[in-house]
Amino acid sequence: MALDLLVKLLESKEVNHIEFCRIKNVLDEIMLMNGNTELSAIQNKLLEPASVVTGLKVDADILIKECRFISKRIGEVISLAGESDQAITSSEYIPKEFFNDMESSWKGRVKRVHAEEEFANVDVAAQALSTAVTEDFLPIIVRVKAVMSSHGSSKGEISYAKEHGAVWFKGRRLAPTVWANTPGEEQIKQLKPAIDSKGRRVGEEWFTTTKVENALARYHEACDNAKGKVLELLRGLSSELQDKTNILVFCSTLLIITKALFGHVSEGLRRGWVLPAIYPLSKFCSQPISTGIKILKRIVKCQDYSTEENSSEMDLLRLFPYWLDTNQGNAILNDVNMRSLFILTGPNGGGKSSMLRSVCAAALLGVCGLMVPAASAVIPHFDSIMLHMKAYDSPADGKSSFQIEMSEIRSLVSRATGRSLVLIDEICRGTETAKGTCIAGSIIERLDDVGCLGIVSTHLHGIFDLPLSLNNTDFKAMGTEVVNGCIQPTWRLMDGICRESLAFQTARKEGMPDLIIKRAEELYLTMSRSNKQTSSTAHHGPSVGYSNVNGLVDMPDGLGNFFEPPSGATGLVRKDVESIVTAICKDKLLDLYNKRSISELVEVVCVTVGPREQPPPSTVGRSSIYIIIRRDNKLYVGQTDDLVGRLGAHRSQEGMQDATILYIIVPGKSVACQLETLLINQLPSKGFKLTNKADGKHRNFGMSVTSGEAMAAH
């Protein structure tokens, strides 16, 4: 529960039984962790961050002692789950809803032993009410049913008037034509109109008797007394625990930190994240790990160092965006070896902003001692991590987007040191190009002089023509490549300068009218010719080619198609599918082998099953992935342990009898599921159309541990 709400409820003595149960659960979980040798060591290390958050210093022994006392006290008063001595009253003739409304607000809150007299009075009053209703109303019901069966005129029933909290008789035309002392007549004579709390008649059909009215009043009084006693006990317990508010706040904070850490490690292991090495390496942080409990131990044991030794280097191997799942195969892995400030260029949609976010997240998680989205990471102990993304205007403050940007970057530059990580996305984008370029160049010079690590991304290519004095800056780019005559981003970090923006293709992709795009291309060609001499001027740093880092020819970037698959994509044949599927599976199996998720590296053999053919007997009882190529060249990707039966089921469907099928035998069901998910997510990017995509959302896969280490079950 929220800490501020907990404190407020205790101070006002309004903690209900649900919150008391939650408090007890928190305390019990802390004591449970303390009872485990491995987990107690982790818990003791987490006392320090809990102290930092709460401002309270609590000794481990005192913490457990207080937890035990408070948990026991709550357990003595509060009725816990599984206790069955406070069932809601029931009666054969009184509606269940009545007793539920009257008793559910106070029963099951506290142990009955603390309010035995009040609970007993309710039981007695409820029995008396049931007796009164049975004696006064039941004979009328029997008579009415008999009359209805013969004449169909009279009508009556015992009903619950929810608005008035009462049980009354509801009926009409009850008086007999001739009074003959038949059964039920005496009770009918006792009926009187039901009245509400203000003395007004409720309606023409509602009746009661003096006996029922008195029994109902006694039952209401007993319920009110019992409810009051329960509230008194709850308020008394709240008052008693007010002196323990600090301990409760500390325990709640400690458990939140513990569960957050557990969730982080669990999800990090599933996603393939790793723990970084923080400068300087400690004896704890340099040891290999393989299990979740060891990761938890290592996280809490890694110390906080502030030395400047090696603080100017950061290595992130196979870094990927934290919001992507590598199991789906759609994350581009990049190696970031940072020894200086990077000036990052690249096309629109090329991944510059994603690179900044990824580096920032990895560094922030790393200096906190948490897992990072990479294969390995060496991170210096930064004194600050500062990220500036695109700025927007603030009408309330009367500032334009450029004013906001300059204000934020001023704060960033003034606080940067040689041990800072500074990340600026698209610097000086909100003002006139020439002056914005010069301001950006001056800011870069300042950061270079400070000697910090960082990335400054930009589309202001004029920066490279400025006479900048740079000693601690490298030029990096997000690459592009030509695929079937189309210019496409690779989303990979490379050395050099990328002057290719892909602006025309991006505009076209987002639906900009072709008329506008074509005119823009004409204007670009005109401008390029007039500035040809300027554009050929030498600039600082290595630049591979004019258009991009891969040496593309000098051409307007609108002449290619952006992200459009080749026109023959729908005509891809079996050999194309086989080649691409084999390559994807080989890479994944090699990755699993390197991670020791599989014991041996198996050969990938893609076998074709033609129309009217069956898989060989060697496939029986073995896990496999299969790809069905339909007549329309759409693909279906699946996995199975019964290939013959599965393909038979597919071929029984209309139009599938002549489909070509490819399959690959793989080591185990879990590997098959991973490859299935990977292929479903990867094949569309290769130009294929799939008929099934749901299995591409699978996230959890089993893993065999082959390192020989015994894993403890907790």
Q: Can you tell me about this structure?
A:
The chain is α/β, with parallel strands linked by helices. It has 4 domains: 112 residues, no CATH class; 138 residues, no CATH class; 208 residues, Rossmann fold, CATH 3.40.50.300; 129 residues, no CATH class. The chain contains 19 helices and 18 strands. The strands form 4 sheets. It has a 6-stranded mixed beta sheet, with helices on both faces. It has a 4-stranded antiparallel beta sheet with strand order 1-2-4-3. A 4-stranded mixed beta sheet has the order 5-9-6-7, with helices on one face. A hairpin with a 2-residue loop joins strand 13 and strand 14. It starts with a helix and ends in a 32-residue tail after the last helix.
- Beta-strand content estimate: 5-15%
Q: Helix share of residues?
A: 40-55%
Tally of separate domains: 4
Distance between the termini: 25 Å
| CATH-defined superfamily of the largest domain | P-loop containing nucleotide triphosphate hydrolases
So, CATH architecture of the largest domain? Answer: 3-Layer(aba) Sandwich
Radius of gyration from the alpha-carbon trace, in angstroms: 38 Å
Mean pLDDT: 82
Q: Helix and strand layout, with pairings?
A:
Elements: H1 3-11, H2 17-34, H3 37-54, H4 60-77, H5 96-103, H6 116-150, E1 155-161, E2 166-172, H7 185-190, E3 192-193, E4 206-208, H8 210-241, H9 245-271, E5 277-278, H10 292-301, E6 314-319, E7 334-338, E8 341-345, H11 352-367, E9 376-379, E10 384-388, H12 401-415, E11 420-424, H13 433-450, E12 453-457, E13 473-483, E14 486-495, H14 503-509, H15 514-530, H16 532-535, H17 574-594, E15 607-609, E16 624-629, E17 635-640, H18 643-651, E18 660-665, H19 669-682
Parallel strand pairs: 5-9, 8-12, 8-13, 10-11, 11-12
Antiparallel strand pairs: 1-2, 2-4, 3-4, 6-7, 6-9, 13-14, 15-18, 16-17, 16-18
Helix pairs in contact: 1-9, 2-4, 2-9, 3-9, 3-10, 4-8, 6-8, 17-19
